[in-house]
Give the backbone structure.
Amino acid sequence: MANPDPEIVRKVTQWLGFADEDLKLASHTMDLLVEDTPYRLIAYHAQQCAEKCLKAFLVYHKVDFPYTHSIGRLLRLCGDLAAWPQTLKDAKELTPYAVTARYPGEDEEVTKAEALRAVELAQQVRTVVRSDLQKLGLQVPQ
């Protein structure tokens, strides 16, 4: 897609910026050496990073997406536009963190290992999406 509309570029950049903030928060919180590190919130922000990266990709391609936190559903939508969603299928593991970390009664315990895995998956999604957007001509910092 050559020379995307400046408004689309602005929106995509905003989505990616918000995603980066979520990942930065998750990563920095993992570095806290406290006994009661909030692993559920780390996993939540990792999920949010992946979700926002995928939505940025869809915005770039002018694809309307439903109000959803489902990484699998977003990957399916991206799959109509790119070959990489299959390689990110493990990112579907992040979907439950969109809800379980935010609402009482839905708050399953998140372990340190699970939080680390969530951050790793979010980083993978971020890397793949940004790389593809760059190949399409969008100037995004890595």
About this structure: The CA atoms of residues 79 and 125 lie 13 Å apart. The chain has a mean pLDDT of 91. The radius of gyration is 15 Å.
